[in-house]
Amino acid sequence: MHSTDVFISHAGPDKLLIADLLSEKLQAHGLNCFLDKISMEPGDYARDEMTKAMESAKVGVFILSPEFAARKWTMRELRCFLRRRIEAIRSGMRPPTLIPVFYRLSIRECRELDPNRYWDDERKNIFEVEKFFSDERQREASTDTVKRELQELADFTGIENEVGATNLPGDRFGHDKRAHLVEQVFLWVKKKCEEDSSDEVREVLNASGQVGTQAAVTSTARCAVDKFTPCIHAEHNPDEIYLQLNSRGIDGSPNTCEARLKEAVLSTDRNSHIGATATGKGGVGKTCALRAIAHDDDIKAQFSGGVYFMSLGKDANVGRLIEQLCIAVEASGGKQVAAEMREQSELRRVLTKMRAWFNTRVCLFIIDDVWAVNGIDACILQKLSTLAAATGDIRERSRLLYSTRDSELKQVGKRVTFEPREREGNESVRMLMLASGAKPEEANNPRCKEAVSKILKLCAGLPLALNVAGTGVRYMRGRWKGEVSQAWEAYLSKMKSRNTIRSERPGDGYLLSLDATLHASLEIVESGMGSDAERLGQFSFRKIHRSLCVMKKQDRMPLSLVRDLWEMDYESAEKYAIQMERVGLVDLHYDKDCGWVRMHDLTHDFAVQEAQKEESVTVWYKKLADVCRQGRGLLGMTESEGREGKDAREKYVFENTYRVLKQGGCVEELKNLFLSARWVKAVIQRGSVWQYEEAVKDLNSFLRNTGGSESLLRDTGEEGSVYAMELMMRAARLSVPFCGESSAGIYFQLYGRIKHRAAELCSVQRILEEIEEHTPRPWLQPVSECVGRAGGSLVEQIVLPNIVYEVGMDSTGGVYGHYLNPRRTRITVFAQSPDKETKMTELGNDFETGSRKLTCGCVSMSKRYAVIGYGDGTLQFWSVSEKKVLWSVCGHESAVCSVAMSGDGKRAVSGSWDRSVRVWDVDTGLQIGDALTGHTSVVASVAMSGDGKRAVSGSWDESVRVWDLDTGLQIGDALTGHTDGVESVAMSGDGKRAVSGSWDESVRVWDVDTGLQIGDALTGHTSVVKSVAMSDGKRAVSGSWDRSVRVWDVDTGLQIGDALTGHTGGVYSVAMSGDGKRAVSGSLDKSVRVWDVDTGLQIGDALTGHTDGVESVGMSGDGKRAVSGSRDRSVRVWDVDTGLQIGDALTGHAGCVTSVAMSGDGKRAVSRLSDGGVRVWDVEKGSTVHLGKLKDWRDIVERFLNAEDLGAVSRTGHRRKRRKVFASRRKIVHEREDGSEAVLAQLESTVTWWEVDDNHGVFVAAAGKQVVIMKLVV
């Protein structure tokens, strides 16, 4: 038995009408469900099989009813899942998912279970009938225990029976309501299973190559579960830094900048929403204050979730911000979460994941040196403030602490301004003395008092200048051979010789005093080298210091790269860096056995200024570009796999390539790099898609601005390059969720997403050729459309904390709508402006009181009004800005299914289970005119034109109707064409066109005035593809639950001819003859049909005889014979030309026959049972030749089917083992010789059926509604 994906727990009365339907839908989607005895075979011991399924299922669905609560086995099943969940959480493993379906037992009833309330049709108490109160049952689980377990289940987010579905035979809407409920449950379970499968590593159980309707996979390992570990993630200040976090004045209030900042962070005042912002010019001590606060004992006591320090700087962009957020998550133990965050392309998605990770933990997030630059907007602080959402007790809330020099930034929290200290005040003296290593009283020593005083004046109270000066004095004191006090005068003379005061911003009146101290530091380290050392081409500290102008602000450069920039060995570079650190020119620190050089922002400005005076900054960028190309070159860095194992030098070069090449003027090289598939592959592997996207946008903007007009771009050939770069950027962004770190899997994604433009663009064709050349073998080359195209319609996604129930777009491009919390007690209206500012408004907490259920809602385009519909037919009209109910009316006789509003919010329209459409005046709350009637079933969806004069409605009666709201009349006849219930409708602003979506899985557009459908419904399979097969590597055939068979050209990926139709049930299996001229299909309609592929016609009548659904079919090499296996446990062989069955049915299997195959000459057949048993048949004699097991499949095929005929055998699976390529969920996997596995491709839907043709190197798979054709390149 396969591992169980979903365990469906239910009581008997709900089996036929709910549980069976749900199981069928999930099984059709490729999920393995356990549903009592249906999931077992003869010979299985029921209790053992149920226990296995309960203990292994990843998702448990509980269809709740009074009988569920009363019966022994159903409560045992629930008890098992609750226990497993607790055990998994304790052991750090992923717990099973529990999904309650509140079908005939509501949430309230689960929380307040009263066994005396429930009676059957014979007026007997259900719990007494089930012997719930017997001593035996009470010993196993008392009434209080059962109540407690149901209460615990009610705390899980589940699916409520909003439509009022019942099992009552007299309920005329019963079928529709149950179908709607099952669809809801199916979608939710499918979503949860797909989330689980993405966290598992699976392998195929096809030892020796098995035949099967799908690749049999089982869980072999789980990804390590992240465990939250609070920490203080911040550097310590050097010992010589002077700060007073706890300093108080006479009145007891803080009397230093850093003390006031600390108090603001610890404040519990409700007006202090998120913390504090430290402002002030550069070099005034903000960063040091933030570091000191991070390690303060009071801070650590209040923020039990840890303190996380992040640094940006003036050169930062959104990519750096995201990386800093990821590092904070990693520091707290969230390695997997950080990896997921790096895959996101939107900052708000990153913040959503980060907020979910830290959840309710109380943390302090410190972000140093924030600027509104390079895509970081002025509202960034408000966006980051979501990390400290205002929930719970103000004293137990996370806080954020920022520092900034940017006056354009919109600040949040309490503002604390840092200023230079008093020039000769006590603080300045203490800072200078502490940095110099001298005793405080030395400042008053008559022999050095005057020199100290003059140094203080020159430093102008600037903490950074005081620190550099003190550090320089310390260096000289340590080497001074005379009276130590004389070192002060010597340092003063060096300061005076280079005192060139410069201003940070012209005209702002704030003069920096840093230049003199930095020049003095360079004078100190250059002593003894001679003033002409640099001019004579000798080593110079000034030269190597200004070479660091190529660094990013607030960033660090590995010493292994610095040494190449300085053209010396590592030991020499380290020695000189240490000397410069000792005089305050750089910071040198070590991390993971690697040395790093860093500079203060203002020191970096100094290096840039000096470089501009001498050789120019561009010269140094060109030199760094040359250094980066050394060794394997830039593309050489793309050869290694994954994010791990990159040395610090290579990592730095990769992350800074764009900046270095652009600043160095190497635009053509940069363009070629971005048009390289190998480079983009490395971008994805290193989790740098966001940074890559920003770089491409910036480069394309640069090319357009410098290249002139669009016509000039076309003439120079740059237009194609610009578009190709944008296409690759979008392809990379779309590929991230579907590929791991293997090169083959990434190349598959990129190739499939851009190949549609190869015929038009030479740049794209060259990228494809590069992929074909450099992809490691084996790899899968997409032929048909295997993944979504890049450059399509998707622009962005807005991530919200709960399921969105309604969404709209206004005339400016702003998005609005509403969502509900899991318990459906609160409605939140959201609005996002075109510049991406999002506003949330919560509309109270009195929804779903008592028995009233909230069913739908709508927000007006103006965002001023909202209308809410309820299950009892009530409508509420809300003022969003005032957060209050304007009107509450009961206008429908049954549940309100859908509501919509006009653009100005003056009119509303509603559709209901009572089959009517009603129009409302929002200002008065009164109905306009009579109810609009005509639908013969539930009105599931309504929409309105912008001016409120027309409305459109869609119903489960399969029709769409358009209404004139002024006259109350229907416009024209009902719009028909859908073959199943209409679930959603929308209307153009002018009311001239309508669009509808249906359960028939099609979208149709209508001309309202003519009543005609515009264009055809979408073509291709419209339901799950259940089976695929191939012949000679030129053609493939597919069968679907949409009842059709389709034939495809393997070379082009296009459909050949029309769909082959005739089956009246879902097509479960297909096969082809060896020459590809005939196909055979088996269906749930119990028939087998043979098709002429060239003409598209059925050959003869349907082959009938099976008494249950046909699970599998096969065909001989010449197409003369076909074999079929059925749920009726029989195998039948057919003469295709005559349409007659050959001999009697081949019986002997004890269960459903899931797979069959036939030898090339049609004389022998092989069949497989669902339990793994294999049987070989002599077709002529009708007898069994051999009985075997699935693990011996390869030997059986080689022994009993002619080896030369293997190419004609349908789905033997034999070649899968030879190639060691197989499907596992959404992935196509290659098993290497050493037993390890590599993902060659990841599709967007689960693979339910697949086949490999080794002779022609073709892999065909059924994935969702797609037939995916790929070439296997070895």
TrEMBL record:
One Gene Ontology MF term:
ADP binding
The UniProt keywords, alphabetically, are: Repeat, WD repeat
Q: Where are the WD repeats?
A: 889-930, 932-973, 975-1016, 1018-1058, 1060-1101, 1103-1144, 1146-1187
A single Gene Ontology biological process assigned to it is:
signal transduction
Q: Which Gene3D superfamilies match?
A: Helical domain of apoptotic protease-activating factors, P-loop containing nucleotide triphosphate hydrolases, Toll/interleukin-1 receptor homology (TIR) domain, Winged helix-like DNA-binding domain superfamily/Winged helix DNA-binding domain, YVTN repeat-like/Quinoprotein amine dehydrogenase
Q: Which SUPFAM superfamilies match?
A: P-loop containing nucleoside triphosphate hydrolases, Toll/Interleukin receptor TIR domain, WD40 repeat-like
GO cellular component terms given for this protein: cytosol
This one is known as WD40-repeat containing protein
The organism named in the record is: Chondrus crispus (Carrageen Irish moss)
